[in-house]
Amino acid sequence: xxxxxxxxxxxxxxxxxxxxxxxxxxxxxxxxxxxxxxxxxxxxxxxxxxxxxxxxxxxxxxxxxxxxxxxxxxxxxxxxxxxxxxxxxxxxxxxxxxxxxxxxxxxxxxxxxxxxxxxxxxxxxxxxxxxxxxxxxxxxxxxxxxxxxxxxxxxxxxxxxxxxxxxxxxxxxxxxxxxxxxxxxxxxxxxxxxxxxxxxxxxxxxxxxxxxxxxxxxxxxxxxxxxxxxxxxxxxxxxxxxxxxxxxxxxxxxxxxxxxxxxxxxxxxxxxxxxxxx
Length: 278
What we know:
By secondary structure, this protein is an alpha/beta fold. It is 33% helix and 17% strand.
Protein backbone atom coordinates (compact mmCIF):
# COMPACT_ATOMS: atom_id res chain seq x y z
CA UNK A 1 0.00 0.00 0.00
CA UNK A 2 1.25 3.47 -0.87
CA UNK A 3 -1.06 5.25 1.54
CA UNK A 4 -4.10 7.42 0.91
CA UNK A 5 -4.02 8.40 -2.78
CA UNK A 6 -6.07 11.50 -1.95
CA UNK A 7 -3.17 12.86 0.12
CA UNK A 8 0.01 12.39 -1.98
CA UNK A 9 3.18 11.74 -0.03
CA UNK A 10 6.12 13.45 -1.81
CA UNK A 11 8.67 11.09 -0.27
CA UNK A 12 6.87 8.02 -1.59
CA UNK A 13 6.03 9.60 -4.95
CA UNK A 14 9.68 10.51 -5.47
CA UNK A 15 10.68 6.87 -5.12
CA UNK A 16 8.20 5.82 -7.80
CA UNK A 17 9.75 8.08 -10.45
CA UNK A 18 12.42 6.52 -12.64
CA UNK A 19 15.61 8.59 -12.81
CA UNK A 20 18.63 8.27 -15.08
CA UNK A 21 21.66 10.00 -13.54
CA UNK A 22 23.44 10.12 -16.92
CA UNK A 23 20.86 12.57 -18.30
CA UNK A 24 21.53 16.18 -17.36
CA UNK A 25 19.14 17.87 -19.75
CA UNK A 26 15.42 17.14 -19.83
CA UNK A 27 15.50 17.42 -23.63
CA UNK A 28 17.82 14.41 -23.75
CA UNK A 29 15.08 12.12 -22.40
CA UNK A 30 13.78 10.01 -25.33
CA UNK A 31 10.09 10.25 -26.09
CA UNK A 32 8.04 7.24 -25.06
CA UNK A 33 6.16 6.03 -28.11
CA UNK A 34 3.93 3.01 -28.46
CA UNK A 35 5.66 0.00 -29.99
CA UNK A 36 2.84 -2.15 -31.37
CA UNK A 37 4.40 -5.03 -33.28
CA UNK A 38 1.79 -7.79 -33.29
CA UNK A 39 -1.91 -8.33 -33.98
CA UNK A 40 -3.95 -9.52 -31.02
CA UNK A 41 -6.76 -11.94 -31.71
CA UNK A 42 -8.02 -11.57 -28.13
CA UNK A 43 -9.78 -8.35 -29.12
CA UNK A 44 -11.40 -9.52 -32.35
CA UNK A 45 -15.11 -8.72 -32.10
CA UNK A 46 -17.43 -11.70 -32.58
CA UNK A 47 -21.03 -11.51 -33.77
CA UNK A 48 -23.41 -13.95 -32.14
CA UNK A 49 -25.13 -15.68 -35.06
CA UNK A 50 -25.99 -18.79 -33.02
CA UNK A 51 -28.14 -17.26 -30.28
CA UNK A 52 -25.68 -18.16 -27.52
CA UNK A 53 -26.21 -14.97 -25.52
CA UNK A 54 -29.97 -15.57 -25.47
CA UNK A 55 -29.35 -19.15 -24.32
CA UNK A 56 -27.33 -17.97 -21.31
CA UNK A 57 -29.94 -15.33 -20.50
CA UNK A 58 -33.01 -17.56 -20.72
CA UNK A 59 -31.67 -20.65 -18.96
CA UNK A 60 -29.97 -21.14 -15.62
CA UNK A 61 -26.23 -21.76 -15.84
CA UNK A 62 -25.12 -25.07 -14.35
CA UNK A 63 -21.55 -25.35 -13.07
CA UNK A 64 -19.96 -28.78 -12.93
CA UNK A 65 -16.58 -30.38 -12.37
CA UNK A 66 -15.31 -32.97 -14.86
CA UNK A 67 -12.51 -35.29 -13.77
CA UNK A 68 -9.79 -36.46 -16.15
CA UNK A 69 -7.47 -38.93 -14.47
CA UNK A 70 -4.03 -39.84 -15.78
CA UNK A 71 -5.51 -42.69 -17.89
CA UNK A 72 -7.84 -40.28 -19.73
CA UNK A 73 -5.13 -37.65 -20.19
CA UNK A 74 -2.82 -40.25 -21.69
CA UNK A 75 -5.57 -41.29 -24.10
CA UNK A 76 -6.22 -37.69 -25.12
CA UNK A 77 -2.55 -37.02 -25.78
CA UNK A 78 -2.09 -40.15 -27.88
CA UNK A 79 -5.15 -39.31 -29.95
CA UNK A 80 -4.07 -35.68 -30.32
CA UNK A 81 -0.66 -36.59 -31.70
CA UNK A 82 -2.08 -39.18 -34.07
CA UNK A 83 -4.90 -37.02 -35.45
CA UNK A 84 -3.41 -33.52 -35.45
CA UNK A 85 0.01 -34.48 -36.86
CA UNK A 86 2.08 -33.15 -33.95
CA UNK A 87 5.11 -34.85 -32.43
CA UNK A 88 4.45 -33.79 -28.84
CA UNK A 89 1.87 -32.05 -26.71
CA UNK A 90 1.13 -31.45 -23.06
CA UNK A 91 -1.87 -32.66 -21.09
CA UNK A 92 -3.01 -29.05 -20.97
CA UNK A 93 -3.09 -28.49 -24.74
CA UNK A 94 -4.75 -31.84 -25.45
CA UNK A 95 -7.41 -31.26 -22.80
CA UNK A 96 -7.97 -27.63 -23.85
CA UNK A 97 -8.63 -28.69 -27.44
CA UNK A 98 -10.95 -31.49 -26.29
CA UNK A 99 -12.98 -29.22 -24.00
CA UNK A 100 -13.22 -26.53 -26.64
CA UNK A 101 -14.63 -28.87 -29.26
CA UNK A 102 -17.18 -30.36 -26.84
CA UNK A 103 -18.32 -26.90 -25.72
CA UNK A 104 -18.81 -25.76 -29.32
CA UNK A 105 -21.06 -28.72 -30.04
CA UNK A 106 -22.94 -28.40 -26.75
CA UNK A 107 -23.79 -24.75 -27.52
CA UNK A 108 -24.92 -25.79 -31.02
CA UNK A 109 -22.87 -23.15 -32.80
CA UNK A 110 -23.66 -22.66 -36.47
CA UNK A 111 -21.00 -23.53 -39.01
CA UNK A 112 -20.32 -19.86 -39.85
CA UNK A 113 -20.06 -18.84 -36.19
CA UNK A 114 -16.64 -17.36 -35.39
CA UNK A 115 -15.32 -18.82 -32.15
CA UNK A 116 -12.35 -17.91 -30.01
CA UNK A 117 -10.15 -19.74 -27.52
CA UNK A 118 -8.17 -17.60 -25.08
CA UNK A 119 -5.54 -19.36 -22.98
CA UNK A 120 -3.95 -17.77 -19.92
CA UNK A 121 -0.15 -17.83 -20.25
CA UNK A 122 2.37 -17.15 -17.48
CA UNK A 123 5.31 -15.44 -19.21
CA UNK A 124 7.36 -14.69 -16.09
CA UNK A 125 9.97 -17.23 -17.17
CA UNK A 126 10.21 -15.64 -20.62
CA UNK A 127 11.70 -12.33 -19.50
CA UNK A 128 14.91 -11.69 -21.43
CA UNK A 129 15.41 -7.91 -21.47
CA UNK A 130 13.99 -7.19 -18.03
CA UNK A 131 14.82 -8.51 -14.58
CA UNK A 132 11.91 -8.70 -12.19
CA UNK A 133 12.39 -6.72 -8.95
CA UNK A 134 13.85 -8.52 -5.95
CA UNK A 135 11.02 -9.84 -3.80
CA UNK A 136 8.53 -10.09 -6.68
CA UNK A 137 6.21 -13.05 -6.34
CA UNK A 138 3.20 -14.27 -8.25
CA UNK A 139 2.56 -14.57 -11.95
CA UNK A 140 3.07 -12.36 -14.98
CA UNK A 141 0.06 -13.35 -17.04
CA UNK A 142 -1.29 -12.58 -20.48
CA UNK A 143 -3.46 -14.51 -22.94
CA UNK A 144 -2.87 -16.21 -26.26
CA UNK A 145 -5.76 -16.75 -28.66
CA UNK A 146 -6.91 -18.96 -31.52
CA UNK A 147 -9.78 -18.11 -33.89
CA UNK A 148 -11.87 -20.61 -35.85
CA UNK A 149 -15.16 -20.91 -37.59
CA UNK A 150 -17.27 -23.44 -35.72
CA UNK A 151 -17.65 -25.45 -38.93
CA UNK A 152 -13.88 -25.86 -39.14
CA UNK A 153 -13.81 -27.50 -35.72
CA UNK A 154 -16.44 -29.97 -36.89
CA UNK A 155 -14.77 -30.81 -40.21
CA UNK A 156 -11.15 -30.93 -39.10
CA UNK A 157 -9.66 -33.58 -36.78
CA UNK A 158 -10.95 -33.72 -33.25
CA UNK A 159 -7.95 -31.79 -31.94
CA UNK A 160 -6.45 -28.37 -32.70
CA UNK A 161 -3.41 -28.92 -30.53
CA UNK A 162 -0.92 -27.53 -33.05
CA UNK A 163 -2.68 -24.17 -33.20
CA UNK A 164 -2.86 -23.91 -29.40
CA UNK A 165 0.84 -24.75 -29.09
CA UNK A 166 1.74 -22.07 -31.64
CA UNK A 167 -0.40 -19.46 -29.88
CA UNK A 168 1.15 -20.19 -26.47
CA UNK A 169 4.64 -20.28 -27.99
CA UNK A 170 4.17 -16.83 -29.55
CA UNK A 171 4.06 -15.18 -26.11
CA UNK A 172 7.41 -13.53 -25.41
CA UNK A 173 8.50 -10.49 -23.43
CA UNK A 174 8.43 -8.42 -26.62
CA UNK A 175 4.93 -9.72 -27.42
CA UNK A 176 3.72 -8.79 -23.92
CA UNK A 177 5.27 -5.30 -24.08
CA UNK A 178 3.62 -4.72 -27.46
CA UNK A 179 0.28 -5.80 -26.03
CA UNK A 180 0.55 -3.29 -23.18
CA UNK A 181 1.04 -0.52 -25.76
CA UNK A 182 -1.79 -1.91 -27.90
CA UNK A 183 -4.22 -1.75 -25.00
CA UNK A 184 -3.01 1.70 -23.97
CA UNK A 185 -3.49 3.12 -27.48
CA UNK A 186 -6.70 1.40 -28.59
CA UNK A 187 -8.31 0.57 -25.23
CA UNK A 188 -10.05 -2.47 -26.78
CA UNK A 189 -12.91 -4.33 -25.16
CA UNK A 190 -12.91 -8.06 -24.56
CA UNK A 191 -16.03 -9.88 -25.71
CA UNK A 192 -17.38 -13.08 -24.19
CA UNK A 193 -19.48 -14.03 -27.24
CA UNK A 194 -18.35 -17.32 -28.76
CA UNK A 195 -15.33 -17.31 -26.45
CA UNK A 196 -13.82 -19.90 -24.14
CA UNK A 197 -11.14 -18.71 -21.71
CA UNK A 198 -9.03 -21.41 -20.08
CA UNK A 199 -6.99 -20.74 -16.97
CA UNK A 200 -4.85 -23.51 -15.50
CA UNK A 201 -4.46 -23.60 -11.73
CA UNK A 202 -2.92 -27.07 -11.70
CA UNK A 203 0.40 -25.86 -10.27
CA UNK A 204 -1.05 -23.80 -7.44
CA UNK A 205 -0.31 -25.39 -4.06
CA UNK A 206 -3.87 -25.66 -2.77
CA UNK A 207 -2.94 -28.75 -0.81
CA UNK A 208 -0.72 -26.85 1.64
CA UNK A 209 -3.58 -24.64 2.83
CA UNK A 210 -4.46 -25.41 6.44
CA UNK A 211 -6.86 -23.34 8.53
CA UNK A 212 -6.62 -25.57 11.58
CA UNK A 213 -8.59 -28.57 10.35
CA UNK A 214 -5.89 -30.25 8.29
CA UNK A 215 -5.32 -30.32 4.54
CA UNK A 216 -8.34 -29.63 2.29
CA UNK A 217 -10.23 -32.64 0.94
CA UNK A 218 -11.27 -30.63 -2.14
CA UNK A 219 -10.79 -27.11 -3.44
CA UNK A 220 -12.17 -24.95 -6.22
CA UNK A 221 -13.28 -21.48 -7.19
CA UNK A 222 -16.19 -19.22 -6.40
CA UNK A 223 -18.44 -17.78 -9.08
CA UNK A 224 -17.14 -18.08 -12.63
CA UNK A 225 -18.05 -15.95 -15.62
CA UNK A 226 -19.80 -17.84 -18.39
CA UNK A 227 -16.80 -17.99 -20.74
CA UNK A 228 -14.25 -19.21 -18.17
CA UNK A 229 -13.07 -22.77 -17.70
CA UNK A 230 -10.71 -23.65 -14.85
CA UNK A 231 -8.21 -26.50 -14.84
CA UNK A 232 -7.59 -27.62 -11.25
CA UNK A 233 -5.32 -30.34 -9.86
CA UNK A 234 -7.17 -33.59 -9.19
CA UNK A 235 -5.82 -33.92 -5.69
CA UNK A 236 -2.86 -34.81 -3.52
CA UNK A 237 -0.50 -37.32 -5.17
CA UNK A 238 -2.75 -37.54 -8.22
CA UNK A 239 -1.79 -36.59 -11.76
CA UNK A 240 -5.22 -35.82 -13.17
CA UNK A 241 -6.98 -32.54 -13.99
CA UNK A 242 -10.43 -31.34 -12.94
CA UNK A 243 -12.20 -29.04 -15.41
CA UNK A 244 -14.75 -26.64 -13.92
CA UNK A 245 -17.05 -24.62 -16.16
CA UNK A 246 -20.65 -23.51 -16.54
CA UNK A 247 -23.16 -23.93 -19.37
CA UNK A 248 -26.91 -23.41 -19.82
CA UNK A 249 -28.88 -26.36 -18.49
CA UNK A 250 -29.78 -27.61 -21.99
CA UNK A 251 -26.13 -27.54 -23.07
CA UNK A 252 -24.53 -29.05 -19.97
CA UNK A 253 -26.21 -32.41 -20.56
CA UNK A 254 -24.84 -32.58 -24.09
CA UNK A 255 -21.40 -31.49 -22.89
CA UNK A 256 -21.36 -34.28 -20.32
CA UNK A 257 -21.60 -36.86 -23.07
CA UNK A 258 -19.27 -35.18 -25.54
CA UNK A 259 -16.47 -34.67 -23.04
CA UNK A 260 -16.29 -38.32 -21.98
CA UNK A 261 -13.02 -40.09 -22.71
CA UNK A 262 -12.80 -43.86 -23.01
CA UNK A 263 -9.64 -45.15 -21.37
CA UNK A 264 -8.39 -48.64 -20.77
CA UNK A 265 -9.24 -49.80 -17.27
CA UNK A 266 -5.90 -51.24 -16.23
CA UNK A 267 -2.65 -50.20 -14.65
CA UNK A 268 -0.65 -47.62 -16.55
CA UNK A 269 2.20 -48.89 -18.69
CA UNK A 270 5.47 -46.98 -18.92
CA UNK A 271 4.29 -45.38 -22.17
CA UNK A 272 1.02 -44.28 -20.54
CA UNK A 273 2.96 -42.70 -17.70
CA UNK A 274 5.12 -40.85 -20.22
CA UNK A 275 2.05 -39.43 -21.98
CA UNK A 276 0.29 -38.50 -18.75
CA UNK A 277 3.23 -36.75 -17.07
CA UNK A 278 4.99 -35.06 -20.00
